[in-house]
Amino acid sequence: MLKALVYIALIVLGIAVSLMEHWVPALPPPLSGLHEWEAQTLVGALAGGLLALLLTNLVSLVNRQLSKEGGARQLLQSVLASFVGALCGFVLAWALGVLFAQSPLIRALQGALVLSLTVVGFIVGQRQENLLGEIFGIRPPAPPPGSGPKLIDTSAIIDGRIGDLVKTGFIEGKIVIAEFVLSELHAIADSSDNLRRRKGRRGLDILAELRRSNEIEIETISKDYPGVTDVDRKLIQLAKELNAKIITTDYNLNKVAKVEGVPVLNINELANAVKPRFIPGEEIEVEVIDKGEEIGQGIGYLDDGTMVVVENGRRFIGKKIRTIVNSSLQTEAGKMLFVRPKIEPQKWDQ
């Protein structure tokens, strides 16, 4: 709606200025069949429409640029480059006016020169990453390692551990939350499934707590991709544009992002990496809570969630016992320990 109003306003302004300034003093052959006011109206409407098109596209470009990491610097560089282009255009327009007598055609050429060189300067400033540095021999400072933006996925928010990770200082830089991720989180918080609803609301509470704590910079970005329906695809595309890493617990997103060259910080992988490592022969205490798949096996868990398979441990269900580590197995789902009781079952029962 606002875009349409801008077009209408500038077209009306173009017509008014054309009628007052007489932009077409002598009607060219294509317009010779029109009255003078009709020709002036047509030319003014075309000029206003062209100006509206350029203005709306420029505003859209500025908005996209500012949403990117380092976008403000790139935009400043583009404005300076367009200023240099406009200056060159004015110089050439002045030279054209000196060489040729003034006429409507010469004035049109002068205006076209200034406008085209201004646009060329802006485009050059957009496409060159470090144009000012190349001109003046200045290199942009290298960002500290790990200080780049981190895009957070819905799965990492509802997981609940992201708040503790931020508090410990393991995550550096800025956390970026996309609007489409927030929309998905709100949908989960409004789910009819009780467990999903509780997880969604916990995720919203964690985000609110992080914003209040000011322990890390959090930015919400409204960038979206209307042609893409899958949230994971949107997240990967946004990470490429922002040169950001993705924080997630989603196994599939983790794999796809790595295939496409997007760095991923997987909370599950971090959790597995910091779990204590046990060697065969080491003693651990575990509570046997259930029976295993094999005959006589018992199952227990360590405090960090590591599954422990207890050989001949079924008769110890409901008890805490000392065990000796036989071996360990690392899988995508996590780590498993295989242990045996330190004492024989017969001795325990005695």
From TrEMBL:
Keyword rRNA-binding part of the UniProt annotation: no
Keywords linked to the UniProt accession: Hydrolase, Magnesium, Membrane, Nuclease, Transmembrane, Transmembrane helix
Membrane among keywords: yes
SMART domains: PINc
Designated name of the protein: PilT domain protein
Top-rank taxon: Bacteria
A GO molecular-function annotation: hydrolase activity
CDD domains: PIN_YacL-like
Short name of one Pfam family: TRAM
